[in-house]
Amino acid sequence: MKALVNPFNHIAYSSFYIYALEKVLGKGNIRYSSRPFRNLSPGAQQSRGLLFILREGEVEKKYFICGADSWKIDEELYNWCDIYASVNANFENTPGRDKLISLAPSFGIKCWDKNELAIKAISNGIRYLLSIHDGKLKTFVGNYKRLLNRPFYEEMTYEHGEDNYIFFCCTLWYNDEWNQNDSKVNARRANFIRACKDFKGIEFEGGFVAQEGRSSVDLFKDCLAKRSYPYSEWLQKTKRSAIVFNTPAFWECHGWKLGEYLALGKAIISTPLSNDLPAPLEHGKNIHFVEDCSSEHLSEAIQYIISHPEYRKQLEHGAKEYWEKYGTPEKSLELIGIHN
């Protein structure tokens, strides 16, 4: 099998699946070419996900893996492809979509070392300059540079968290009349931060990192982090954390954090999810759901998990088992019918 990969997808949202293709097919069987995708609009070619074509002999199949925040279907890409996979599939909101496959949430990774990353940025940047005439070449190439801050997939390893330490650091998203983040994701995360800060016997570290000039800082000033954390530090402190918190993120999507927490095998407290998964996460087995996300109820959940170490280990092992069954790069390809 050989893969023809669209060179213009947003690299942060396609890197996880590029890594998967290289693992399953081998780097020598992957080629980047804009030619098979040139009839698509520039917007479709620059989507948050991965467009590719798989060829085996005379048989050809077209794939799109959507990593965008919304459950909405890109009609142009849905009509173009044979398989449309999404990390935010919502079958209730999109009935009758026979091509649609649900994937576990992924996250941006470093899929190449520094030298190969530079080569890919230059070669695909040249293709971009010659083919996409929107004046955003600097942004396109800059996305490759930002990939340097992401982990190698091999760094996503399980460690049993410390008993009396909780780390949680996240973006304080901007709020507007459409996303209403201040009453949704920001409010839920703030309640968890407040519950941790008020919990006796727990060392809490982290908080919100505001988007300068965009976030509602005054509403959440008691929840702001003292500083931002580079990803390498975020990763190590998250591994140390006894508990982590998940809630539907921007546009009520499965955020990257859910994928990261599952891959790390963390004890996850979560509000109910809005979109589908390849298989449901089960309360008490691989996640701890809370219907009421008030600070009081979140504090009760923290208390229960901290005071029941065997239950916490069950959540950790259950999260990792779920990830190994449904979420790894190779398993993601298996779900769309691509095997070793």
Q: Helix-strand pattern, N to C? A: EHEHEEHEEHHEHEHEHEEHHH
Q: How can the largest sheet be summarized?
A: 6 strands, mixed
Globally, the shape reads globular
Number of strands: 11
- How large a portion of the residues is in β-strands, by DSSP E? 15-25%
Oligomer kind: single chain
The N- to C-terminal Cα distance equals 10 Å
Summed over residues and divided by their number, the pLDDT gives a mean of 96
Question: How would you sum up this structure in a few lines?
Answer:
The protein has 340 residues and is of the alpha/beta class. Helices cover 37% and strands 16% of the residues.
Q: What can you see in these coordinates?
A:
The protein is α/β, with parallel strands linked by helices and 340 residues long. The protein is 37% helix and 16% strand. The strands form three sheets. It has a six-stranded mixed sheet. It has a three-stranded parallel sheet with strand order 9-10-11, with helices on both faces. Helix 1 crosses helix 11 and helix 8 crosses helix 10. The model has no long low-confidence stretch (mean pLDDT 96).
